[in-house]
Each structure stands twice: as C-alpha cells, then as structure tokens.
Amino acid sequence: MDLTLAKSQGYLKHQLPQSESSSQRKLLAVIGVYAGFSSYLKRNTFRGSWMPRGDALKKLEERGVVIRFVIGRSGGH
Predict the structure, then answer these.
(1) pTM for the full model?
(2) What per-residue confidence (pLDDT) applies to 4?
(3) Residue of 23, 42, 50, 66 with fewest CB within 10 Å of its CB?
(4) What is the spatial distance between Cα 36 and Cα 28, in angstroms, rounded to a whole number?
(5) What pLDDT is attached to residue 18?
(6) Distance of CA 15 to the CA centre of its chain
C-alpha cells in the first residue's frame, strides 16, 4: 500500500501537527516499532504491554522521548 492510499484510508489521521517550537526541540530518544498494516492486534498488544498512555505518554514526549509505530512493508513483499 502506498502512502497516498494509506492517507485516503485514514491510516495517518492521528499524526500530530508540527509546530515551529516542536520541530526545533531536541529529542532524547525515538522509539520506532515496525509493524504491517494488517498487524492491528500486535500493535495493540505492544500498546497494552509497555507503551504508556495519556498523561504518561505526554510527559515522555515533553522530555524528548517519542514512541511511534512505523507501519508498512518492504517493496519485495
């Protein structure tokens, strides 16, 4: 699935808007979890087991720790 199709189907609707101040801040860590489009249950398992939510996630991001899912597949599959 290409990026345009993913956007049209709502996969990227939860992206946060980039403000000037947030794009200039220093990041301490970026944690990316690679998952396929069809791996919804696996992503929820990760979220429930170790990924903070709500205010805890906001506090981490304020300190420069960003956690995001990297969703896609390689060109050969």
Answers:
(1) 0.50
(2) 67
(3) 23
(4) 26
(5) 54
(6) 8
Are 32 and 70 contacting, i.e. CB atoms less than 8 angstroms apart? yes
The answer to whether 62 touches 26, Cβ cutoff 8 Å, is no
Give CA angle at 41 (39, 42), nearest 5°: 65
**Is the CB of residue 12 less than 8 Å from the CB of residue 48?**
no
pLDDT at 70: 79
Distance in Å from the first CA to the final CA of the chain: 11
Q: What tokens appear for 5 in the block?
A: 């199709």
Question: What pLDDT is attached to residue 45?
Answer: 86
**Least confident span in 15-19, 24-28, 29-33:** 15-19
Q: How far is CA 60 from the centre of its chain?
A: 14
